[in-house]
Amino acid sequence: MSESIVKENKRNEILKIATPVFVELLLGTLFGMVDMMMLGHFGSHEISTASIAAVGITNQLIFIGLSLVQALNVGATAMVARYIGAKREDKIESVVKHIIILTQILLVVPILVLGLGFPEQLMHFFGAKSDAIAIGKDYFRIVTLGFAFQSFNFSIFAALRGAGDTKTPMKINIRVNLLNVLGNAILIYGLLGIKPLGITGAGISTTFSQFVALILVITHLRKSHSVVKLNIKDKFHFDKDVIYNLIKIGLPASLEQIAFRLGVLMFVKIVASLGTVAYATHQICLNILNLSFTPGQAFGIAASTLTGRSLGSGDQDEAEGYIRESQKIGVVISIFMMILFFFFGKYVAMLYSDDPDVLKEAAKILKLMAFTMPFQCSQLILSGGLRGAGDTVWTLIATFIGVLGVRIIIAYYLVLVLKIGLIGAWIAVFIDQFTRWLVITLRFKTNNWKYIALR
Predict the structure, then answer these.
(1) Sign of torsion, CA 297 302 304 305?
(2) Please, where are the H alpha helices in 86-198?
(3) Which helix (H) or strand (E) holds 191?
(4) pTM
(5) Alpha helices, H only, 350-421
(6) Counting Cβ atoms within 10 Å, is residue 303 exposed (0-12), middle (13-18) or buried (19+)?
(7) Tens of pLDDT, residues 141-186
(8) Residues 431, 410: contact at Cβ < 8 Å?
(9) Alpha-carbon distance 61 to 371, whole Å?
């Protein structure tokens, strides 16, 4: 078989896995943008700005929880892919049960206790001002409750993606995101004779949508002929090999997410010190820039799945080929998005707010972040490949250096010492992303990730 045919086959396999993820993430991000736009146009400037800030603050807790869930799920994805490559599909259901039980006990219960019991204290801890706390504390409680449903869904989706099934998560997420947007419109603005609930209505819609997703996930597992199954009638036994693999892969990944979220929390506090308007601007830019993560995340998942499968079957060169080809495709897409963000980002920001101060600052930030996209995308894809190989130590090192080191130090200096405002925080983000790309690229080129063994 010629080299060109081999490359084409690899490209087709990558696109088969990555395209549904890309569509899912892109539409999910667009739906999320619509949600934020709805809140941005509800009530007075003061109410809409405080609502957007409250959503951003609430997301800090939820993102911490989901990041740790995803860290455990990295092990599930890698193990499922390896077992399929090694023709050991009988081990997959045990992996699924382990990851669900560990997620619910170790992560969901503590976050529910904190989020439901101490919403105002946590919002203040994350940097919220009194106006955001007053308007968003009920939203905080409601969305925290939805975390229990969301974490279960994440665990199943991780296993399905490890098996190469990215269409099922896409279909489920598109449905529930559409449901969430419709629910938000009805509950935020009070359509169909319902009393307008503002940000509280957005929380109710979000949590209900996640519950519906849970029902759809369970229905799929019961009816599916996939290798990913969940039979609750079978007695559960802890498997020391599964636990070993989850710790070996998941512990560094969890520490990476803890380092990342700790860095983000410190970063948010620096940004929040600039006031509610600056924080709302920051949140709008983050919401828009979620679009830029989609190619990196989608092709990173493809790289992770195909790397794990190739290493499971003992083909290290094929694993490297999948990562390199995924990187090429993803970076081309990110360059196209870079051009769009640079020239048209300010017009997207206008959909969120008509506050001139917010729009002026957002336009500058979006131009700056356009140049971050190729480095960010490349780093996400290479990191996905390394995680698929079980090499999560170096993604931890890259995050530790980039976020806890570079981002925080530079943001502190530019924002709090030189006092150049919100743009200083985003300059720090750019340098952080470049640093992480450099560390991950150097690690990938050593080829040591090819020889990590799992049980």
Answers:
(1) positive
(2) 92-103, 109-117, 119-125, 130-162, 167-189
(3) none
(4) 0.80
(5) 356-370, 373-388, 393-399, 408-411
(6) buried
(7) 998 899 999 999 989 998 898 888 889 999 998 999 889 889 988 9
(8) yes
(9) 29
